[in-house]
Write a structure and sequence with these properties.
Layout: E1 5-11, H1 18-26, E2 35-42, H2 48-58, E3 62-67, H3 74-83, E4 88-91, E5 97-98, H4 102-112, E6 117-125, E7 138-141, E8 157-159, H5 160-165, H6 178-189, E9 193-205, H7 220-237, H8 242-257, H9 262-266, H10 270-287, H11 290-294, H12 298-308, H13 312-322, E10 325-337, E11 340-351, E12 354-355, E13 358-361, E14 364-367, H14 373-380, E15 394-401, E16 407-410, E17 412-420, E18 427-438, E19 452-462, E20 465-470, H15 477-482, E21 485-488, E22 493-499, E23 506-510, H16 517-520, E24 529-532, E25 536-542, E26 544-546, E27 549-558, E28 564-573, E29 579-585, H17 587-590, E30 593-600, E31 610-618, E32 624-628, H18 629-652, H19 662-678
Parallel strand pairs: 1-2, 1-4, 2-3, 6-9, 21-26
Antiparallel strand pairs: 4-8, 5-9, 6-8, 7-9, 10-11, 11-12, 11-18, 13-14, 13-18, 15-16, 15-19, 17-18, 19-20, 19-23, 21-22, 22-23, 24-25, 25-29, 27-28, 27-30, 28-29, 30-31, 31-32
Helix pairs in contact: 6-7, 7-8, 7-10, 8-12
């Protein structure tokens, strides 16, 4: 079979961190004869070379190339490209890994859309990854119609003939941003770029020892020299104008302005801050016209303007204020409707615990930061629009799978409200009021949420800030009342919204990944259950959301022997948020026993029993009564204790003297008679 995909992995001293990468490559859904992995060992000095040699010996589609250390990833990637036999080449770092179906899905998507570059959805494990780019599938993307420029890491799939046609290769040697140069040129030369967002393809990992090459502190002079090479590619392949400014804006925003903001700046040593600022100032003055900064958000424009004006002290002052900016959210309501979890919430930014405020001047709204007059005067002199475009403020609701960090945006209905600040005439705060509907069967960009714990977050974007926070720790009574587990779909999937410990944030347990479901029924009492005889039937009201009617299983477990009896049951929707359980009882089979009650709710995925705080006692004549589990357990324990005490008392009672044998009695009687005769 022709090779569809060659995976190129540059390797240098990954130690144990390469094991996840290897495991993900061996478990790909593509047949082994349709892909290959090429590990290029760049002079590793740990045990990795021997590990890779064993791997290649055991698996014919795994290859290893050993070479002298080159100092960075560029040369190993080039060597791997030269050896690749695949139609496409996928680059993977040695401490990252791929989704099980990543190669198959990305290859098929690339072929289907005749793409030169395929960008698969990424998840960041301790590392930031683009979010907006993966909001939806983009089969025909380019730098004009999609935010491709936000993703410049090399972890993508490239058509090999495309790379060879344009002689696209990585810059070699010990250097930074070689991937920016390579990927930017690929984007600008590609006929089509396809972005696959409905499957999590690539896991981008920050190592626990933080020794990934990209996390080392860099030399500002060398770093920004390399950054200029990426700008050179843009200048070569675009004309002056809005597109070039928009592409340049990515580097101004991400590599310069964001490094000069808030805690990211303040946590750096003072001398290193200044060195970094000086190099950034040079690039801003040398390479960027006014159209580049003009498209930034207001707070970013302020920092960019202060950098251009060489006002380092004001940059630090502004960073001090921004470091206190935090997102906040209140969960106002929660409830199920037609298989969707409706989440109502409000959100706004705070500073130092108080809402961020604004002031209207003329027809524009402006931030009102509590900065020294000198800093405000400096900002006022900037040639930048620093008004607050509050009409563009938005909030997204995101569900994030806890184990993999996979993220998916949910639809949001939003209204923006200006709320006056008491005692400060003319000042106001902006409150974002939103409703989101999470449909677990389609919430992952059209696919269902997989089994796991999904954390609920909100991400507020306003005035140049884009920050996220968990939702639920601050909540209203309506949210408390509306929280219910739900059975949705067919086969039925169990989804449980719950409050996390100890912070009380909202998360979703999909398919019983926790043991929390039993707590949902902890408030049930015998009064909630009715048992009838002839034929036996049990009905109970449960705090559970169902759609129509569904089949479940009632499991009965004998207190004494642990024998189980499974009984078919149905759940029927009754009042909003409640369901009625109904099950026939084989009372003859259950007679003269006491039974624990459990439910098997889900018919999809996990089928773990959920314990109810109830017990069913059935007499020898078939009469049945429901007790609390605590009472039944106590009674069973008391009965067992009484039986044990009786057994113990019997064991302690003196044994009766054994009866004398008959022959002995005869001799004794005869002796007594003879004695009487002598007398």
């Amino acid at each position: 079979m022709p090779i569809k995909v060659s995976v190129v992995v540059p390797v240098y001293n990954p130690g144990k961190y390469i094991e996840d990468c290897i495991a993900s490559l061996l478990s790909q859904s593509l047949p082994d004869d349709e892909y290959e992995a090429i590990f290029v060992d760049d002079g590793s000095t740990d045990e990795t070379p021997e590990r890779l040699d064993r791997l290649a010996a055991e698996h014919p589609h795994m290859h290893v190339i050993h070479q002298e250390p080159s100092g960075w990833s560029g040369k190993p990637r080039n060597v791997g490209m030269a050896a690749a036999k695949g139609e496409f080449i996928q680059f993977v770092d040695n401490d990252d890994w791929l989704g099980h179906e990543a190669l198959e899905r990305m290859y098929d998507y690339g072929v289907q859309n005749n793409a030169d570059v395929v960008v698969g959805k990424m998840a960041g494990k301790g590392r930031p990854v683009p979010l907006e780019l993966f909001r939806e599938n983009r089969p025909h993307a380019n730098v004009e119609n999609a935010p491709l420029i936000d993703s410049l890491t090399p972890h993508k799939m490239f058509r090999k003939t495309f790379l060879d046609k344009h002689n696209l290769r990585y810059m070699e040697g010990r250097r930074r941003l070689e991937d920016h140069v390579f990927v930017t040129e690929a984007y600008l030369r590609a006929e089509n770029v396809a972005v696959l967002s409905d499957y999590l393809c690539y896991y981008h990992v920050k190592r626990e020892d933080a020794s990934n090459a990209g996390f080392q502190r860099f030399d500002p002079v060398g770093y920004f020299k390399n950054l200029r090479e990426a700008l050179d590619v843009v200048e070569e392949l675009t004309e002056p104008g809005p597109l070039r400014d928009r592409l340049f804006r990515r580097w101004l925003r991400n590599e310069m302005v964001e490094r000069m903001r808030g805690q990211r700046l303040l946590k750096l040593p003072a001398d290193y801050r200044r060195e970094l600022f000086d190099e950034i100032h040079k690039v801003v003055v040398e390479r960027f016209g006014p159209g580049v900064a003009a498209g930034l958000q207001p707070t970013q424009q302020i920092v960019a303007g202060l950098i251009a004006a060489d006002r380092f002290a004001d940059v630090e002052e502004f960073a001090q204020w921004e470091s206190g900016i935090k997102p906040s959210g209140t969960l106002e309501s929660l409830g199920w409707e037609n298989g969707e979890l409706t989440i109502g919430f409000t959100a706004e930014y705070t500073s130092g615990g108080d809402p961020v405020t604004f002031r209207t001047e003329g027809t524009k709204d402006f931030l009102a930061p509590p900065l020294p007059k000198a800093s405000l005067d400096a900002i006022a002199t900037l040639d930048a629009d620093i008004s607050a475009p509050l009409g563009k403020s938005k909030v997204d609701l995101v569900v994030r799978e806890r184990e993999t960090a996979a993220e998916f945006f949910q639809p949001v209905e939003l209204t923006r409200e200006k709320v006056a600040v008491e005692g400060r005439e003319g000042d106001f705060r902006q409150v974002l009021r939103a409703t989101s509907r999470v449909a677990p069967l389609s919430a992952a960009n059209g696919a269902g949420l997989g089994a796991g714990i999904w954390d609920v977050l909100i991400r507020i974007s306003s005035c140049g800030w884009s920050k996220e926070t968990r939702l639920g720790s601050v909540r209203g009574e309506e949210a408390e009342r509306g929280r219910r587990a739900a059975l949705i779909g067919s086969p039925a999937l169990l989804v449980l919204p719950y409050w996390t410990d100890p912070y009380g944030n909202l998360s979703l347990d999909v398919d019983q990944k926790t043991k929390r479901m039993s707590h949902e029924f902890a408030g049930l009492t015998p009064d909630d259950v009715t048992v009838t005889a002839g034929p036996g039937r049990l009905t109970a009201a449960l705090p559970l959301q169902v759609q129509g009617e569904g089949e479940v299983t009632l499991k009965l477990k004998d207190f004494a022997t642990s024998r189980t009896v499974d009984v078919p049951a149905t759940l029927t929707a009754r009042e909003p948020g409640d369901a009625e359980l109904s099950a026939g009882l084989p009372l003859g089979e259950l007679a003269d026993r006491q039974w624990r009650l459990e439910l098997i709710l889900s018919s999809a995925g996990a089928r773990r029993p959920v314990a109810l705080p109830l017990a069913l006692a059935v007499s020898a004549t078939g009469d049945a009564v429901v007790k609390s589990l605590a009472a039944a357990t106590a009674a069973a324990a008391a009965a067992a204790a009484a039986a044990a005490a009786a057994a113990d008392q019997a064991a302690r009672r003196p044994a009766p003297r054994p009866a004398a044998p008959r022959s002995v009695l005869r001799r004794a009687v005869g002796k007594f008679i003879r004695t009487l005769k002598k007398k």
